[in-house]
Structures are given as structure tokens and as C-alpha cells.
Design brief:
By secondary structure, the protein is an alpha/beta fold. The protein folds into 4 domains: about 15-130, no CATH class; about 145-430, no CATH class; about 440-515 and about 520-570, Elongation Factor Tu (Ef-tu), domain 3 (Beta Barrel), CATH 2.40.30.10; about 575-670 and about 685-705 and about 710-795, Nucleotide-binding domain of ferredoxin-NADP reductase (FNR) module (Rossmann fold, 3-Layer(aba) Sandwich). The chain contains 23 helices and 17 strands. The strands form 4 sheets. The protein has a 7-stranded antiparallel beta sheet with strand order 10-5-6-9-8-7-11. A 6-stranded parallel beta sheet has the order 15-14-13-12-16-17, sandwiched between helices. Helix 8 packs parallel to helix 11, helix 14 packs antiparallel against helix 16 and helix 20 (about 590-610) runs parallel beside helix 21. The two termini are about 25 Å apart. It is a multi-pass membrane protein.
Length: about 800
């Protein structure tokens, strides 16, 4: 990443000479004469009228160009000067041939030589003039310094898009490479699943792949904090952090890169003014260019999500950090121009510019960006989400409006950096509306139930969809609650599963993982019931709970709700190829496991009924669930888990090891941390298992059978078994995730298995799982490979 950054910076440095304007030489002549007062110019004329109508000034500029400029640069320079005079002075310049009768001798005898002192004192002359060699060189250097500064600012703004294009290209390349290797790797073919021989890939390649996962792809940036905030910030995983750090370094280097500051500058002799102007211009252009990236990365219907297969949360991290960089650039831009105005004109001049529209709208845009930065900090997002959402939308609109009026003085030159923001925003809203229409026509009311014992709302949303629109596990939808005055608000919820309307429709269900089955009737509409499990907190979820509770009271009969859905969103991870799948979930994170179980069941039914389609090759299925309310587990187990697991086991056609571990975290010791570490001094009384109803009485076991550092029975014989052979164990403590992951990844029978760890749980638990996966990869654990899928959604 750093090597790529160095290459980009080097390429941009080499490109600087390309942006030199061929009109700079003629512009230098015009500059050296701009402060000279010629006798034939009325003092009350507007600036450009006086510059373009004085015959003495025009003749002097032409002679200067002929004497000092290369022949190939004269005409481009005069053309540019003529266009300026026509546009701002209302008159055209005479042809360059008008000075053909003036000889070099005439110049020496009739033209007054202008020195630097004459330029600074606004000397009055009554005849044609020509700058001295030293004054012309200062003028040329001044013009080129300014042109290069502005040209490089535009070039560096383009570099922001080049950087992220490379990032997306790498993501796409990695996705294609992984897809091709999955098809080539014999571990992904069923005929080799019992083979213990090494894959055809070299040992070096396998070792490098393991090390890249261990050190780059999976671990947190520099500590265990990744999903869990570190102070007021959420630190992305290591690869994301390296990408973001490279972007920050690139912006820093380009912002404070080369500036040609010298004392002979004819625009600003004070070096502080030169630095203020150059830095102010560059940060303004680069910060404006970053706005497009900010809006693009924040959209739900982001094409880059599909191209890379990355999660929305990944692009939200990019969105936040690009926004922070752009905000810092806006603040530096404002401070630089504040210094520039104060040094050049003083306090009185500074207050006078605030009356100009471009200035105060720029100030409004900067203030709004600063407020966006403050109100987007994690404590505000997590505790005041409704306020955050309202302010985020309002201030984002104000930023665009402010920037539109701020750059209006450039006559549309920088609108090209703002139009994409409007286009992206409008296109995303249009796509959202299209999704809402597609998902909700024909409309059917939803059914919601609320259990006071579990404090959980279950929602079933019936819809009629095309077979191609059947969701995938890991998908999430935005729900609109059409009750009350806040019907326009939407919140994301992970899909916990789905049911088809009838058995005939189930046979039409496509393979939603990666290889779709052939459908007999592609145009057929199917009835599907989308299921969501929601924990009420504040805002929409609390209103949802109160709405259901007011009608149903303490009963669980449920009530009809007017609900719109928008989706599905989220990446589609193909877990069909894994021998071992472990779901590590917390609370309502059980939704992700239920969704994958729905997918397993659908594919198993499709293979049984039609004999085609790809199914899961899983041999070991583990569910580790940390939950505060045992009643929530009991309800979910009886209602969702047990029926799905039982049917999956019956349809698998082979011996399927299914293990369910429930951890009652509310019964954990108060001093216990979120993730118990081995050797914390827990005795066996803290591990008393709970056996849910429906278990065989002879399957109870004594807690003294367990060692204090081995809580996971994944490799042991079943302690609590349902009549259907599903092993269920319950503990009154928090899970030791390192032990859990290591046991899931182990292959004690010597087989080369590949393992998927899917985590959808609270931040601390997710970070502990991530660390445990990294440790398991480092230890090898006899597995052919371990992949980690953190399933979460966050703004």
C-alpha cells in the first residue's frame, strides 16, 4: 500500500511540468505592466476596460512578448489575453501584426524600461514601456508558480479518484481471484472432501495465504478494538485501516507538497501570503473533489458494493474518513483565506468580505461540515440516532447549497465537482423508491408479536415476489413503519429467515448462494413471508414495541401493522463449500444464523424435490449463542431453531453433527468481563448448565465434569440431546470465545476441513471472536482453511 502511494506521488510530481500553461509568457508581460499607469488610460475605468483599451499598454505588452517569449508561445498567449478582454473588457485586441513596423532600435530609443521599483510604486508613463529582464523573470516565475499551483490542485483532485479506483480494482481482482481458486481448489469438490493429501497449490502459496489472512485481512488494526469503539472512534480492521491511512498520507503529502514561494513574487511579496493563497486554493479544490466520494460511499445503492462484494459497513468507514479528510481540508482552506485577507487588507477588509455571497456561503458550508463531523462521532450516533440522522441529512444538503454558491464566482469551472454529488444523491433516492415499489406491490399487511418476557418483537412481512427476488442469508432490509408522523423514517434490520407460501412454490425457489438452479417458470410469482426479530431500544423500535403492546397487551396473538420494506441489501456469502460452519451470535444476532438455516433448508428441499442445485456440504454445524433472557432462547428454539435444525438433519442424507451452545450472560458473575479468559479462577459452580424443556431427563450432566478452562463441548460427546439428536448445552456464564473458535476449527480426525466462522454479536464479543480466529489461523489447528465473516450493520 505504501509503495503504491509512493508511486502515485511520484507520477503526480512528474506530471507537474505538463500542466505549465503555454500562455504564461505573455501573461508575465501583462503582469509586469499591470500596475503601470499609462497616460492614455482614464483613472476611473474598470480594471479590464483600462487594461484592454490603452493603446500604450497593448503596444508595450506586444513588444514585451516579442522580445522575451518563444515564438510558439506568443499566439496562444495573445489568444488567451484576447478572450479575457472580450469577456471582461467588452473589446477585442488589435492583431499582433500591428507592431510589425517597430524595430529593436525603436524599442531601445522610444520605450521606457520598467524596473521593480516602478512596478511597486505604480509609476506613470506617457510612452510605451518594456519591463527589465529581471522584472520579466520575476513576472514569469510568478505566473508559472500560480498556474502550476492551480493546475496541480486540479491534478491532485483527480488523484483522489484514481486512488479509490485502484482500491476498487484491487477489490474486484481479489474477488475474481478468490472465485477462480474456489473452483480450482480440490477442497471445494465433493470427491476430494475426505482426502488428506495436500492441494496442488504449493506449500509456499498456502503459507502466504495463511499469513495474509493472519496479518492483513482479518485482524484489528493495532489492538483488539475493531467493532468496539476505542474512545470516540471505531477503528476499522487492519486492511481497511491501511487503505484509509494511505489515503490520509496521500492527501497530506499533496496538500503540503511543493510550492514555489520566493520574495520576488509580483502577486504577493510576503511569503505568508503566498503560502496562505496556495494552500487555501489547493485544499479548496481537493476538499471539493472529495465531496463526490463522500456522497458515493454513503449511498445504499452503491455500485461499488456489487463490484467488490464488500459490506456496506466497509464503505461507511471509507465514507467517514474521506469526510473527515475533506472537513479538515475545508477548515484549512477557510483558515488560509482568513489569514490571506487579514494580512493583505487588515481587519476592516476582512469584515467587508463577509458581505460577499461567495464568502459567507463558503463559511456556512465549512461550519456545516464541522458540525457534521461532531454529530457523526460514535457516542452521538449510538445514543442519539434519530437526531444524528436528521442533522446528517439537513447539514449535508446545506453543504451542497453552500458549496454551489461558494464556487459560483468561477463561472461554473468547479461545478463539475459538485454535479456528481447531486446525481449520486438523486439516483440513490430513485433506486430506493424503486426498491420500495418492487418489494411492496401488491401490498399486504404485516403481523407483529411482542413478548414481555423476552422483550423481543417478531415481525412477519408477507410479500409476493419473483423467484429471482428471493433474499439471501445475511441480507438486511430497511423497514418503514406507516403509523404516526414519522412514517418517512427507515431503519435497517437483518432478515432472520423466510417461509414460502406452499410446497409447490418452494420447489421453484432458486439457489440463492452463487449457483442458481434452473427454474421451470421464470415469470412465476411466489408467496414469501419475510421474518425479522427486533430488540426494542429507542426511536422507531420503541414505537414499534409500544404499538404492538397497546393492542395485544400481554398476549402473543400479535397485531396487523402497516409496514413497507426496502431491500434486500448486504453481501451474499457462499457458505456451501465449508465442512464446518460456526455461528457465534449474541442476542438478536441469532437472526443471521436463522437466515442461513432457512437457506440450508431451502436448498436441501430443492435437491430432494428436483435433484438439482448446489447444497451445503457442511458436516459440523455449531451455534454459540450468548443471550441475556433464557426465555428468549426457549421461544426461539421451540419456534425457529429446533424445527429448522431437525428438518436439515433429516434432509442432509448423511451424518450431520449439530451442536447448540447457549450462554446465559445475565447469570454471569458481575465482575466477569465480556469474554472470559482461561485461568480466571472460575469454579465449577459458575458453570451450572440449564436444560431447556423437551430434553431427555437422562441427558443431564454434572457441572463438575467440566474443567475450568474448557467450556466448549464441541469435541466432546453430547451432554444434552434432543430426541432428534441435536446436542444442546446451556451455561450460566459468558462464552470463552477463544476456546470456542479453536475447537470449531480443530479437526481431530485428521481430515483437512475448511471452516467458516460467522459472527453477529455485540462489539466486544465480535472483537474477541476476530482475535480468536486470528489465533486459530496462526496455530493451524489442522484445518485446510478458516474464513471469518463478521455480520453487522452500522452507519
Amino acid at each position: 500500500m505504501q509503495g503504491r502511494l509512493l508511486g502515485v506521488v511520484t507520477a503526480l510530481s512528474l506530471a507537474v511540468p505538463i500542466i505549465c500553461d503555454p500562455a504564461s509568457c505573455v501573461s508575465a508581460c501583462q503582469l509586469t505592466l499591470s500596475k503601470i499607469v499609462f497616460e492614455d488610460t482614464a483613472p476611473d475605468l474598470p480594471y479590464y476596460v483600462g487594461q484592454c483599451t490603452s493603446s500604450l499598454r497593448i503596444k508595450s505588452t506586444y513588444i514585451c512578448s516579442r522580445e522575451f517569449c518563444p515564438a510558439r508561445e506568443i499566439q496562444p498567449g495573445l489568444d488567451a489575453l484576447n478572450q479575457t478582454c472580450i469577456r471582461y473588457g467588452g473589446t477585442a485586441l488589435p492583431p499582433f501584426s500591428s507592431i510589425s513596423n517597430i524595430t529593436s532600435g525603436d524599442v531601445r530609443s522610444q520605450f521606457q524600461v520598467i524596473e521593480r521599483s516602478d512596478f511597486l510604486t505604480h509609476s506613470k508613463v506617457n510612452r510605451p514601456a518594456i519591463p527589465s529582464r529581471s522584472l520579466f523573470e520575476d513576472g514569469l516565475r510568478t505566473t508559472e508558480a500560480y498556474n502550476i499551483s492551480m493546475g496541480s490542485s486540479v491534478l491532485y483532485a483527480i488523484a483522489m479518484f484514481v486512488f479509490w479506483t485502484l482500491v476498487v480494482a484491487v477489490g474486484l481482482g481479489f474477488r475474481l481471484f478468490r472465485f477462480l481458486n474456489q473452483n480450482r481448489d480440490p477442497k471445494h469438490n465433493s470427491q476430494h472432501q475426505h482426502s488428506t493429501a495436500l492441494s496442488p497449490y504449493s506449500t509456499f502459496y498456502q503459507d502466504m495465504k495463511r499469513r495474509i489472512k493472519q496479518h492483513v485481512l482479518i485482524p484489528a488494526a493495532f489492538s483488539r478494538h475493531c467493532a468496539e469503539p476505542l474512545g470516540w472512534w471505531i477503528v476499522p480492521p487492519r486492511l481497511q485501516s491501511l487503505t484509509i491511512l494511505s489515503f490520509i498520507l496521500l492527501n497530506t503529502v499533496l496538500t503540503f507538497g511543493h510550492y514555489d514561494v520566493f520574495s520576488g513574487n509580483l502577486y504577493w511579496s510576503n511569503p505568508r501570503l503566498q503560502y496562505a493563497r496556495y494552500i487555501g486554493d489547493r485544499t479548496g479544490v481537493m476538499g471539493t473533489a472529495n465531496l463526490t466520494l463522500i456522497y458515493l460511499f454513503a449511498t445504499r445503492n452503491n455500485l461499488l458494493l456489487w463490484i467488490t462484494g464488500w459490506s456496506f459497513e466497509t464503505f461507511m468507514q471509507f465514507h467517514r474518513w474521506v469526510a473527515r479528510v475533506s472537513t479538515v481540508q475545508a477548515i484549512i482552506h477557510s483558515l488560509a483565506y482568513t489569514i490571506y485577507v487579514l494580512v493583505e487588507g487588515g481587519v476592516q477588509h476582512y469584515w467587508s468580505v463577509w458581505r460577499q455571497r461567495y464568502w459567507y456561503w463558503g463559511g456556512i458550508a465549512t461550519i456545516c461540515m464541522g458540525l457534521l463531523l461532531v454529530f457523526s462521532l460514535y457516542p452521538v450516533r449510538s445514543r442519539l440516532y434519530e437526531l444524528f440522522l436528521f442533522l446528517h441529512m439537513t447539514l449535508a444538503v446545506m453543504v451542497l447549497v453552500g458549496m454551489w454558491y461558494h464556487v459560483a464566482i468561477f463561472d461554473g469551472a468547479y461545478n463539475v465537482l459538485l454535479w456528481p454529488c447531486f446525481v449520486v444523491w438523486i439516483a440513490d433516492r430513485a433506486m430506493r423508491l424503486a426498491r420500495v415499489v418492487r418489494c411492496n406491490l401488491p401490498y399486504r399487511a404485516s403481523l407483529a408479536t411482542y413478548s414481555p418476557d423476552t422483550d423481543v418483537v417478531w415481525i412477519t412481512v408477507p410479500r409476493v415476489v419473483a423467484p429471482s427476488a428471493v433474499p439471501h442469508p445475511g441480507a438486511y432490509y430497511f423497514l418503514y413503519l406507516l403509523h404516526g408522523t414519522t412514517w418517512y423514517e427507515s431503519h435497517p434490520f437483518t432478515l432472520s429467515g423466510w417461509e414460502l407460501g406452499d410446497q409447490e412454490d418452494e420447489q421453484q425457489l432458486p439457489d440463492t448462494t452463487a449457483t442458481a438452479t434452473k427454474k421451470e417458470n421464470k415469470n412465476r410469482q411466489i408467496q414469501i413471508n419475510l421474518q425479522f426479530v427486533i430488540r426494542p431500544y429507542d426511536g422507531l423500535t420503541s414505537r414499534l414495541r409500544d404499538l404492538v403492546r397497546r393492542q395485544t397487551g400481554e398476549s402473543k396473538t400479535g397485531r396487523r401493522l402497516r409496514v413497507l420494506i426496502e431491500g434486500p441489501y448486504g453481501p451474499n456469502h457462499n457458505l456451501c463449500r465449508y465442512d464446518t460452519i460456526a455461528f457465534i451470535v449474541g442476542g438478536t444476532g441469532i437472526a443471521i444464523a436463522l437466515a442461513y438455516l432457512s437457506n440450508m433448508l431451502d436448498l436441501a428441499l430443492a435437491r430432494q424435490n428436483k435433484g438439482e442445485g448446489q447444497g451445503y456440504r457442511v458436516q459440523h454445524l455449531h451455534l454459540v449463542w450468548a443471550v441475556k433472557e433464557p426465555s428468549f432462547f426457549q421461544e426461539t428454539f421451540d419456534r425457529e431453531l429446533k424445527p429448522r435444525l431437525t428438518e436439515i438433519a433429516q434432509l442432509s442424507g448423511r451424518q450431520l453433527d449439530i451442536s447448540v451452545q447457549i450462554y446465559n450472560t445475565r447469570a454471569a458473575a458481575p465482575a466477569q468481563t465480556l469474554v472470559d479468559e482461561p485461568g480466571n479462577g472460575m469454579d465449577s459452580s459458575e458453570m451450572e448448565p440449564m436444560v431447556p424443556s423437551g430434553m431427555t431427563s437422562d441427558s443431564r450432566y454434572q457441572p463438575t465434569e467440566w474443567e475450568s478452562d474448557e467450556h466448549s463441548p464441541l469435541s466432546a460427546s453430547a451432554r444434552t440431546v434432543t430426541p432428534d439428536g441435536i446436542r444442546v448445552s446451556m451455561f450460566n456464564h459468558r462464552p470463552r470465545l477463544e476456546n470456542v473458535v479453536l475447537r470449531c476449527a480443530s479437526a481431530e480426525d485428521g481430515e483437512k476441513r475448511i471452516c467458516a466462522i460467522v459472527a453477529c454479536c455485540p462489539a466486544g464479543m465480535a472483537d474477541a471472536t476476530r482475535s480468536a480466529v486470528v489465533k486459530a489461523i496462526a496455530m493451524g489447528q489442522g484445518c485446510a482453511g478458516i474464513d471469518f465473516y463478521p455480520e453487522s450493520y452500522a452507519w
